[in-house]
Amino acid sequence: AQTVTQSQPEMSVQEAETVTLSCTYDTSESDYYLFWYKQPPSRQMILVIRQEAYKQQNATENRFSVNFQKAAKSFSLKISDSQLGDAAMYFCAYVKYGGATNKLIFGTGTLLAVQP
Amino acid sequence: GAGVSQTPSNKVTEKGKYVELRCDPISGHTALYWYRQSLGQGPEFLIYFQGTGAADDSGLPNDRFFAVRPEGSVSTLKIQRTERGDSAVYLCASSLSRGTGELFFGEGSRLTVL
Q: What is the distance between the alpha carbons of residues B72 and A106, in angstroms, rounded to a whole number?
């Protein structure tokens, strides 16, 4: 069965600094997607960034980028120039490509605090 | 609608009572998902609808949990004989199809069973 592990329950970063959140996963599939979702206190999960496993190039979305290491099954999120609005719970998630249900498997999350 | 809408936002009930949680997905989204998020945990899959049918209900914890989507739009998650362990945030998500994995989530319904 596929699993997603986030080993950092909490992280803290100073405003304008850079922080990296870690995620590892386990799967026997070769084609899949990986995601980072942000969950602010409003509880609504918001997609931050997506990576297709077949792509070697790391995904980037403005201040957010990933370091995808397929062989190591590692998928870390880097947030540059951290802003107060980045404070939230961050979840790493996996889904098998072409699966019957598009069922996301989530990690346990990392709570990010941003210090002014 | 503009986003996924879930009602009620918060629900407090007593052990043994029946509860219904409603989800109104984004218009045109054929895929709908229910997840349960316990305190300090990531969301856990409960059930997936494609149109009106439950294509995958493997995440429902037991037969006290049931969900419907009779017209392929609004879905209702039903919990019978609630237990204190059912306390959690119930998240609904929708997507256009099962293609890309990008789900659009609502703000969830927080259920507290006393």
A: 26
- Whole-number Å distance between alpha carbons of B7 and A43: 13
What is the pLDDT confidence band of residue A56, given thresholds at 50, 70 and 90? confident
Residue A73 φ/ψ region, left for φ over 0, alpha for ψ in the -120 to 50 degree band, beta for the rest = left
Q: Give which of B92, B98, B111 to mutate to test A binding, by max A Cβ within 10 Å.
A: B98
Which residues of chain B fall below pLDDT 70? 1, 98-101
Residue B91 CB partners (closer than 8 Å, separation 6+)? A43, A45, B6, B34, B35, B36, B37, B43, B105, B106, B108
- Hey, of B6, B33, B48, B105, which one would you mutate to test binding to chain A, going by the most A CBs within 10 A of its CB? B105
Establish if A41 touches chain B: CB-CB under 8 angstroms: no
Q: Is the peptide bond before B8 cis (omega within 30 degrees of 0)?
A: yes
**pLDDT (tens digit, 9 = 90+) per residue, B15-41?**
999 999 999 999 989 999 999 999 989
Nearest to A101 among B56, B100, B108 (CB): B56
Does B96 touch chain A if contact means CB atoms closer than 8 Å?
A: no
In terms of CA atoms, which chain B residue is nearest residue A41?
Answer: B107
